Amino acid sequence: MLQTIRDRAQGWIAWAIVILISIPFALWGIQSYLDIGGEPIAATVNGAEISQRDLDKRVQQARYELRERLGAAYDTAGFDDKTLRSEVLDEMIRDALLFDTTKRLGLRVSDQEVQMQILSERAFLRDGRFDQDAYNRVLQLQGMSPAMFEHQLRQQLAGMQLVRAVGASAFVTASELADYQKLADQKREISFLRFASGDYLDGVSVDDAAIDDYYKTHSNDFQTPEQVKLDYLLLDSTTLASKVSVSDDELSQQYASEKGRFVVPERRQMRHILLTVPKDADEATANGVLEAIKTLRERILGGESFEEVAKESSKDPGSAAKGGDLGTVEKGVMDPAFERVAFDLPVGQLSEPVRTPFGYHLIEVTSVTPAQVQPFEAVKDTLRTEVAKQKTDSLYYDLGERLANIVYESPDSLEPAAEELGLSVQHSDWMSREGGTGIFANPKVMAAAFSDEVLNAGSNSDMIEPDRDQLQAIVLRVADHREASTKPLDAVRDEIVARLKQAGAEAKAAKAADALAKQLREGGDWATLAEKADAPALVGRSDPKVPASVLDAAFKLPAPVAGQASVGTASLDDGDAAVVRVTAVQDGETRMAEKGKPSPDASMLSQLMGRQLYTAMMDDIERRANIERKTTGIEETP
């Protein structure tokens, strides 16, 4: 049968079969090439896609920034991962809307602006100057080409044009400024009574049903996060130093080739007499100073002591008392005009008057130490350190290039690279996405550890250099993996009981505060009902002696009628409750700006109003935009 088909598959019939077969294969191949549907999408904004991978990177960066900002106070249990991902996605959507808006408005950024921003970026500087190698290296570590980075930077600068334009459109009227100052500096006479939640703990009972219900409804609070154990190869220039040796012959060659570095320049012991000329002096005044210093010169040439004349007449506060002595001076220290004369003068000869921006000088050189080359033995240790570092750096770059190639060619094991490069495979402890200590505190490293190709595909990571200023690289692979899980009830029962008792005590304290506030509003006597209350005090909005929540409640209460009081309640940060009583209000004073100077309050208010305008504009743009949030990998974002 197959032979029959082959014999008859000639001419247009054969071509029709080939075409019919080729179409699905071609379409499938194009889809695979373009990765259509291949990469998960977190959201689309007016047709533009935000990838799941980009969202993961931004979430990881947000965690790192939180950890850096909070330090020891950072606690992973205090941050809900779903909420964080949702907030980061919202921020990325806002960024996409901003870029889209600037594009539709036709905002442009010149090549010069982009160039100046790049040249001033600290990450690309070496010794205060732009360094092309540093620029290329930083972009390579971020997986970006110069064209990609410059395009992204151009978008960001265009967005900032819109932000600044909207913000600059806000202004503050005189009446608005006066109202603000009255409110900002307002003081209120308050007193408050605290109800300590700890006093109510013994009256709170917790049953098993409440414990079970709390455990079910707060299961996210008792999560053990997803964790990995890692095998890794660490290439570190500090450990490579022991593998480098430097011979005396190499040091001698280095010394000979760089002998100019070790020349100690000529030094001169000198003294001077200065008569100052004011910066705004006219020609007649300058000539008067010149004649005066010529007179001093004649006195010295006539036999008077240079030292005594300097002490008597020199206007240099640093050297006059020392007879004009300037100590030992090298070239490049003094004013150029002064230096040209001083380094041409023979020893013991008095110069003619020399004019500098400071005035007129008389100079005398008392001794000269000629330039000399430091001997090899004196600089040998310095050379050894430098040559060793050069060789160590060279070895690091050579091994780094080989390491990157080997782990790419053998993606399923670290052993080939370890054997060829003389490295040892090291092993980490369990770590979550938040990372660990040392190199594992770096978000780039942890992002690689939890990336799809390393975590799910089981491949080696690419070679990662976490810190551009440190010659250190790591390649890792996942040795073991634990999914996120909820701790068993027995393990967290005591914690739940403590939480429920505290919540119950706080509720009882708040109830007691509400009851007292009600009595006071109905005419109860404060002095009788609140015997232990603090005495009334006139305080401002940020008085450090009063709890912040009490101040917040006090300044939200209506101004009391003369002879009466406004009463409210407050929940304190430690779980206690308080009854707050306001008996008087004193508005702040209005202040006029100094003539010709902007008012700091007005500037602050205009900036605040500008931010509000910008936020309102972005809210409106977002309402009008076509935004579709996809599954983020943890939840369906709102």
From TrEMBL:
Residues 265-367 form the PpiC domain. The keyword Cell membrane applies. Keywords: Cell inner membrane, Cell membrane, Chaperone, Isomerase, Membrane, Rotamase, Transmembrane, Transmembrane helix. It comes from the Bacteria. Pfam families: Rotamase (PF00639), SurA_N_3 (PF13624). InterPro entries: PPIase_dom_sf (IPR046357), PPIase_PpiC (IPR000297), PPIase_PpiC_CS (IPR023058), PpiD_chaperone (IPR052029), Trigger_fact/SurA_dom_sf (IPR027304). It is found in: Cell inner membrane. PROSITE patterns: PPIC_PPIASE_1, PPIC_PPIASE_2. It is a single-pass type II membrane protein. The chain crosses the membrane at residues 12-30. Belongs to the PpiD chaperone family. This is Periplasmic chaperone PpiD. It comes from Thiorhodococcus fuscus.
